Amino acid sequence: MRVIVIGAGKLGYSIAELLSKESFDVVMVDHDAAQLDAPKETLDVLTIHANGASPITMNEPDIRGADILIAVTGQDEVNMVACILAKKHGIHHTVARIRDMQFMGEAKEYLKENFDIDILLNPELITAHEINRILMTPAALNVEDFAHGKVRLFETRIRRNSPYARQKLKDVALPPGVLAGMIFRDHRMIIPHGDDALLPRDNAYFIGIPSAIEEFSQAVAQRGARPVHHVMIIGAGRTGRALATMLDRQGVAVKVIDKDRERGQLVAGKLRHGIAVWGDGTDITLLQEEDVATMDVVVCLTDDDKLNLMLALIAKHLGADKTVVRVMRNEYVELMEKVGVDIVLSSRLLSASEVLAFARRGGVVSVSLLEGAKAEAVEVIMQEGAPAAGKRLMDARLPKECLVCAYVRGDEAGIPNGTTVLQPGDRIILFIQTQFAQKVMTYFKGKE
Question: Starting at the edge strand that comes first in sequence, how are the strands of the sheet with 323-327 ordered?
């Protein structure tokens, strides 16, 4: 399958990197030759120095008739034009990065119908939704919903005083409808069995029925953990404004700090309960005056990764309960977690997850990249004639690098065991080591 990526910036590079690792035939196009140097040297992709929104470029033999075009330049209009031209030159599916929030809200369906765009990608909005979901769940490092909300993924860090620490899983009384799906320990992914134990500092992933996960999340929450009532957001860009609005609608008292007066005024006009403060988030006196020590969470959303790290550490030093940082560079995630940031999210990986699910297709509904893309939670629809269809899981001979965590049949969600028989049409949620994803997917896809 050939995929064209228009725009070789940070997001384009991340998408191309993921797709090329899965043996997609990737072509990257950018009008700036310097932008193509990094993918040319480090990725297994073809690069073309050209204007991605030109009909002449679309007529290139390596582009015309491709399977998917993904336009992720920094200009919405260029991305829209590229998608229109792509469909007219035989490219079957298109994805466009759209940064304008007004387009994403008021004109989303219009753009899809009239501009031949299959998926609208807004990294800032995706990141805001992800942070909002995490903040609304006690003890969560990550929360994802699958199968139209019938199954929920919950990631947490096991604390030293956790009632589940150092116990073998076969001796742990998890609530009915909850499964321990995956453990990350010392950069290793572990598919747990009954004799495995959860250890302090493990990142543990649980999956199950949302009501059961909600009950379980309360049980694993740190003693004294409380719902989020007060949030400080440093950075009033697109992500900061979107997140502030979401939290404000849920009754959370939001305080937004930004050096740019105009951006502060934009967010202030959207808040009913919160306030916007014009000032420098690195100013310790200002943070103290704005009661940073009383905040349940401080979210750092400036455009500078290193500044976000410094802001999070200052907030922690001044007494903030929890810190969240958005990063652009995926490689910073692990480092920031090591030095004390509670939750680190890569907006590029969150966006790339959506593109990866679309590129795989063949029954794949969604992909959530976990632990810096070392693992995935995948929702897939079992297809007619798939090798695993109609067999007991114990007899399906699935690769050991994956675990079937949950399934939805009709309106009912369930946690499978070895005797469960999965049927065509079932929505199945899997944990997979990313490097084995293609191999695993063949068990759930029908013959083409």
Answer: 275-278, 253-258, 230-234, 297-300, 323-327, 343-346
Residue 226, C-beta contacts closer than 8 angstroms, at least 6 positions apart = 138, 296
Rounded Cα–Cα distance for residues 382 and 362 (Å): 9
Specify the DSSP element, H or E, that contains 413. strand 412-414
- pTM to 2 decimals? 0.83
**Residue 73 contacts residue 9 (beta carbons within 8 Å):** yes
Examine the pLDDT at 222 and tell me if it is beyond 70.
no
Per-residue confidence band for 227, with pLDDT thresholds at 50, 70 and 90:
confident
440 φ/ψ sector (left φ>0, alpha ψ -120 to 50, else beta): alpha
Give pLDDT, residue 317: 94
| Residues in a beta bridge with 366 | 379
Burial class (CB in 10 A: 0-12, 13-18, 19+), 417: exposed
Residue 86 has pLDDT above 90, yes or no: yes
Contact at 8 Å (CB) between 250 and 136? yes
36 contact partners, CB below 8 Å, separation of at least 6 = 8, 28, 30, 47, 49
Whether the per-residue pLDDT at 305 is higher than 50: the answer is: yes
Alpha-carbon span 64 to 91, nearest angstrom:
7
Report residue 448's pLDDT band, with 50, 70 and 90 as the boundaries. low
